[in-house]
Amino acid sequence: MTQQRRRLLAAALAAAAGAAFCARAFAQERVIRVTARKFEFLPNDIELRKGEAVVLEFTGTDVLMGFSLPDFKLRTDIVPGEVTRLRFAPDRAGSFDFVCDNFCGEFHEDMAGKIRVTA
Amino acid sequence: MTQTIDRREFLKLAGLGGAVFVSGLTGCAAMGGAKEEDFYFVQLSDTHWGFQGPALNPDAGGTLHKAVAAVNALSVEPDFIMFTGDLTHTTDDPAERRRRLAEFRSIVSGLKNKNVRFIPGEHDAALDNGQAWKEAFGASTYSFDHKGVHFIALDNVSDRAAQLGAEQLAWLKSDLASQSTDARIVVFTHRPLFDLYPQWDWATRDGAQAIELLTPYRNVTVFYGHIHQENHHMTGHIAHHSAKSLIFALPAPGSLPKRVPVAWDAAQPYKGLGFREVDAEVQKAAYELTELPVVKA
User: Fold this and answer.
1) Are A36 and A50 in contact (CB under 8 A)?
2) Which residues of A touch B91 (CB under 8 A)?
3) What pLDDT, on a 0 to 100 scale, did the predictor assign at position B31?
């Protein structure tokens, strides 16, 4: 085995180990599945507990959309046909708006929701 | 300018309007020998041609015509007219988008002043990366000089992610490089360059980079639309002024649980709608005097 191939194999094993670690970490956390479709998030009202780590799992059904939670500087694209995950552990209580931040059509401005974090 | 007071016309359509002043010091920012003198231009925004919603504007098909008539009725003609985006209301149908853009263009061709400039809003351009808009109006990023002021039009909407992008930021940097740091610079965008209220998507994802490029210049003012109301904000020494809409008003940032448009008030039709004129005045040199005694008491 050449040195280059060894390095590639080591990198692949490290990536696999990382993925497994992430999977385990995610497996321990509550998963909240969110569907983004024209022109709504389902659900659009999400309750969390302060300090609780969760995984927001997004699925898009029609066009490119975005999820943005500005108060926590958290965002991701939501690509149709793909599952996107964001790990999130709110460090403060309150009601926080999230929006779609990729313009998706006539009622794009209606694509919004709230995350309510209880102490 | 001797006619400043005389020509401060306010919107006859709504009885409302606004004037914003962009000033600079005499002798600064002489660009290529351009003569500095007072002038004014008109900003109109968010006309949303094609929108239908009687509860928000039962005169959606007539408001733009009235605005054109109101601009034509100004007692002194502006030097130019700028539309800061959302000329049309969005549609998924590319043919309908082109039809609305053509209708809008036809209506504003009724403006007496033919020096009319445009930038797109996301309703015009985001769903096809600005293709139809550019067919109708040409480049969406450009600059021009007028009577000692350098004007820059930026497109932060054709990318549906509401960002300027690396290419446009590089162009901005290059364009600014030809200006002295005391140049009088006016920037037009559709969306705010700063994070006005990202919880309602009132921001530009990479707007901070544009502000960083503009910050070394001491006389910069930004005019934008998007939020359907007046808003005045400073990022450091840079002033940002949003314009009213000509279709429906939106609530103040964060003032309601949801960004719900303001309903039409039959008792006060066109309330919250309007356009503005911008007076670009060359300030005379100012001196602050402090008189001192020979001996302090």
Assistant:
1) no
2) 106
3) 40
Q: Among B153, B172, B155, B173, which Cα is nearest to B164's?
A: B155
Pairing of strands B80-84, B116-119: parallel
C-alpha to C-alpha distance for B154 and B171, rounded to whole angstroms: 10
Q: Chain A 51-90, CB below 8 Å of chain B: which residues? A: 64, 66, 68, 70-71, 77
Res A28: pLDDT: 77
Give residue B197's Cα distance to chain centre: 18
**Does any domain span residue B292?**
no
Q: Is residue B2 part of a domain?
A: no
Q: Identify the residue whose tokens are 């290059």.
A: B174
Among left, alpha and beta (phi > 0; psi -120 to 50; other), residue B226 is left
Interface contact A101-B205, CB threshold 8 A:
yes
For residue B51 the two structure tokens come to 């929108």
Q: Considering only the beta carbons, identify the residue of B91, B157, B161 that sits closest to A106.
A: B91
Q: How many CA atoms lie within 13 A of A4 on its CB side?
A: 0
Whether the per-residue pLDDT at B139 is higher than 80: the answer is yes
Considering only CB atoms, A103 lies closest to which of B89, B160, B199, namely B160
Those residues whose C-beta lies under 8 Å from the C-beta of residue A88, and which sit 6 or more positions away, are: A48, A53, A54, A55, A56, A69, A72, A74
Domains belonging to chain A, first-starting first, are 30-118 (2.60.40.420)
For B55-90, give the DSSP string: TT-TTTTTHHHHHHHHHHT-SS--SEEEEES--B--
Nearest by Cα to B169 from B200, B193, B133: B193
Give the pLDDT of residue B36. Answer: 75
Q: Give exposure, B204-221, as e/b (b: 16+ Cβ within 10 Å).
A: bbbbebbbebbeebbbbb
Q: Which domain holds residue B56?
A: 18-283
The 10s digit of each residue's pLDDT in B44-83 is 999 999 999 999 999 999 999 999 999 999 999 999 999 9
Which of residues 5 through 44 in chain A touch B, CB cutoff 8 A?
A: none
Residues A16-44 have a mean pLDDT of 76
CATH number for the domain that contains residue B30: 3.60.21.10
Model confidence band, residue A2 (pLDDT cutoffs 50, 70, 90): low
DSSP B44: E
A68: nearest CB among B90, B198, B258: B198
Count of domains for chain B: 1
The pLDDT of residue B296 is 79
Global confidence as pTM: 0.85
